[in-house]
Amino acid sequence: MPRISSSMIHQQALTGIRRNQVEIARLQDGVASGRRIQRPSDDPAGASRALDIGETLDRLEQYQVNARLADQRLALEDSTLEGVQNLITRIKELSLAANSGTQTPETRNAISTEVSERLANLLDLANVRDANGDHLFSGFQGRTRPFEITGTTVSYVGDQGARDIQISTTQRVTAGDSGDRVFMRVPPGNGRFSVSADAANTGRGVLAPGSVTDEAAYTGDAYSIRFTGPATFDVVNDTLGVTVLAAQPFTENAAITFDGITTRIQNQPAAGDRFDVTPGGSQSLFETLQMFMAALAIDPVDGATAAKQSQAMSHVIDSLDRGLEHVLDVRATVGARLSALEAVETQNADLRFELQSTLSQVRDLDMVQAISSLQQRITALEAVQQSFAAVSRLSLFNYLR
Q1: Strands 193-197 and 261-263, sheet pairing
Q2: What φ, ψ does residue 225 adopt, rounded to 5°?
């Protein structure tokens, strides 16, 4: 039968006490932090999985930050474009009122004053800044004021950049549009071509905006309608330098059709008068307002000047229509991006919730079980300590007394 020495009893008791104390400390740390895995050695596989989930959650959080930034910029762009839309609508009302024979020099001057103020408002909207102080419509040149006015010329000095922001693992969103696209590249006239009267015209004729009525025949070339007499005209393809229609009889408001284009002339032109049909191109919103003021400055003292003003006002009204359509198109793309952002933010939030639940299952402590285990360990420690205290007092001398 092996002998049990006093030193062995002491060693075993101390080992038991230390083991219980270590386990109690581990359980107390877990209860305090709520974490089952305090160090990788507690559960290597679980720790690795928790690390992967944590990294994914960090990426999701960054995507949400990016999405909020994009949402703020796009919301600001949408509200700014709404202001531009309202401004153009008001200018359109003024243009329709101004294109009336009842206007006097005083009323035209009052309208011109308001248009000038609206031009300044439009410039302010085009130079709006976001919450970070960056200009919204300057492309990548956020600190550069995108639109500058010199005399009567408004210039765009930003770039063509548009910020693409990562909002999920697979999706990016364009958080803005360049000012060049929004304010400078507006199709003039009817959107396909614009019409104008030669400055030297002496008749009362006004060329209608016209339209493309035969896409197959439309060439996109430049044309001119030239009156060889008060009742006859030629149509010349100026791009090719060839006459398309020769010595055509003129009837006021009758359809004039050539190469897929149909238009008409109101009132009576004079011999030598010329009207141009210019395809494509672009015209800024600022130019449209400036053309409006120039048209208002024409004093219709006779038939020829009245025709010039009417022709200029017709072009302004058509250009305002195109400008309004253009702004609405840009707003539609902004709205689509905002909708996509909302959907992605919701997806990211749902995924984050699922990952946080999984991470909790992998890493977090079962509090009820942990507290129960902690109480058991404390009880066990107290029992070991009491047993050791009792055994340590036992000695042969106790029986010899």
Answers
A1: unpaired
A2: -105, 115
Token pair 């549009």: residue: 177
Structure tokens at 98: 């101004």
- 168/131 Cα distance (integer angstroms): 23
pLDDT digits (tens, 9 = 90+) for 306-356: 999 999 999 999 999 999 999 999 999 999 999 999 998 888 888 877 877
CB 365 within 8 A of CB 34: yes
User: How many angstroms separate the CA atoms of 207 and 253, rounded?
Assistant: 9
Name the least confident of 39-48, 63-72, 288-297: 39-48
CA proximity to 275, closest of 329, 314, 330: 314
User: pLDDT digits over 142-159, tens only?
Assistant: 899 999 998 889 999 999
> How does 194-224 read in b/e, with b if 16+ C-beta sit within 10 Å?
bbbbeeebebbbbbbbbebeeeeeeeebbbb
Half-sphere exposure (CA, 13 Å, Cβ side) for 347?
Answer: 13
Radius of gyration over every alpha carbon of the chain, rounded to an integer in angstroms:
41
Which residues, in sequence order, are bridge partners of residue 207?
A: 265
SS3 state at 332 = helix
How far apart are the C-alpha atoms of 221 and 228, rounded to whole Å? Answer: 22
Per-residue model confidence (pLDDT) at position 389: 60
pLDDT score of 50: 62
What's the pTM value of the predicted model, to 2 decimals? 0.78
> How far apart are alpha carbons 310 and 304 in whole angstroms?
10
The distance of Cα 228 from the centroid of its chain, to the nearest Å, equals 53
Report the Cα 143 to chain-centroid distance in Å: 18
Residues 6+ apart with CB under 8 A from 299: 105, 305
d(CA 73, CA 150) in angstroms, rounded, equals 29
